[in-house]
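Why does this matter for the project? Reviewers at the last site visit asked to see concrete outputs rather than summary tables. In response, this paragraph embeds two records directly. Each consists of the residue sequence and, immediately after it, the corresponding structure tokens. Nothing has been edited or filtered.
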Amino acid sequence: MNNSDDVNQSITGENNTQIYSGNDTITAIGECSMAAGRDIIIQSGINPKKYAELLVQKKLLEEQLIKLNEEKNKNRRKEFAGVAINLAEKMRLSAHIDFSPRKLNQLGNAAQLSGSLDIAEGYYNQALRKSRNDGDRRQEADSINNLASVKTLKGELEKAEEMYHQNLIFYKEIEHQQGESGTLNNLGNIAYYRGEFNKAECLYRESLTIERDLGLQSHEANTLNNLGDVERVKNNLDRAESYYYQSLAIKKEIGNQAGEATSMSNLGLIAATRDKFDEAERIFEDSLALRILIGDKSGQAWDYRNLGSSAAQRNDIDRAARLFEKSLRLFKEVGNRRGEMHALRDLGDIENKRSNVEEAQRLIEESLSIQKEIKYGYEDELL
């Protein structure tokens, strides 16, 4: 699936899992931070020096979350997220700080953005316990959704699916349509990962209807990309292309450069499937340039992979190998195990073409090991 902006790329990227911070997705991670008086409570009865130190840390944490919310460059956002988590962990260890469930969800989102899934899961679990103790069903649901997003990234699809279904019932009960649409999309992503494309399409269409009713353009663009991915996998290229162009138009309109690059890259895949390799490579290069500009390393890795695939189809084996190696290095750098799995298999195929059978076998076995580790669903694609 295709959105590199917040945990949906197809073969070119990550699925767009909706992550909640209050009412908002991770793209609005800092918007609730102005309510700091309610969200971060410094306990009374501590010495003035410690109290002053915690006040300074509290202010710095809020500033980092606001910067994170306002920053467009993905590398800078990741930096701000990392600083925020370091501050929060230092404050939490003082034993004199109490974070609200909403703030814990925000910190979990920041940890997830920085690539620290275990830390994110810890914050989400704390948020879940506190929201249940407080009787705050809305924050409880957001915490469950966020936990499910971590489970999805870890490959624990059955557990994630169970959580999303639990929340879908709740969101319908309280008529929280944005939560409902995001959860439907997440369930569609899980179906897609498993290769259940008809089921995924139905879930995406349900989500799209709600998003259009609510005017959620960013979410609508992501879902259109998801529908394009389904049609492309089914080899309905004209329909896939139509969805990608619709998504691209919205992302340009709202200034979502990461999403724009994703839609462009998907259009490049359509051109490559039609054997229009010059057109495909031009599109991939344009997408790559945009992703370099905004600091999207995961997206760059997918574009290098796409360019490598195009070179391989032209039988330019040495160039393909160089591009796949760049892709693999970036996937490892950002901790994208699914991308790493694909890049290793790509390099294994190259070594097969070079008749380096032992090296090809080693690379493919490493790819399959990751596939098993993350419980990736497309066994027929790799085996």
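We now turn to the second protein, recorded in exactly the same manner.
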Amino acid sequence: MLVDAFLSLLPALLPGNLDPAPEPEDVKAGWTAFGLFLGGVATVALLGWSLVRQLRKVEDARQRGVYGEPEEQADAEAAPTAGSSEDSTQA
């Protein structure tokens, strides 16, 4: 049964039954394709610009402490604490 289905589709898959390729002089790039290409380039540029804006906003919010304690303050507070514990262990 499966073999019969394959054999019935086999003539359609043979290379002689495929559509012939168009001649090179029949195929040309058009202004529509060029416009679509430029539209794609503009879209990628717009997405990149938007990404940079959003990343700058996130960095600014992180530095202001919106997501918790700013990294610079956390590092500054952690350094003296670590230093004082070393002094007590050496004594």
